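Dear colleague,

Thank you for sharing your sequence with our group. We've completed the structure prediction you requested, and as agreed, I am returning the results in plain text so they can be pasted directly into your records. Please verify that the sequence below matches your submission; if there's any discrepancy, let me know and we will rerun it promptly.
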Amino acid sequence: MTAHRYLIVVEGDGEANYSAYSPDVAGVAAAGATREECERLMREAIAFHLEGMAADGELLPEPHSTASYAVVDVD
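Please find the predicted structure tokens below.
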């Protein structure tokens, strides 16, 4: 088994109700009450999706996304 590392984007208000998606794995998303739950569910959703793709003989998506923050001055 080969491990792949996929970027996930987690959105939320800092208190509750988080959602996540991966730009590299189209159509996969997850939501959870906490950030930790959301991230766990997203990892499970990606794994489930990739297992299905492999079972169908499809090529797995190559991880290619990266992330960074933009720091800007606002007057």
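Summary note from our side: The beta strands are 9-11, 18-21, 29-32.

Kind regards,
the structure core
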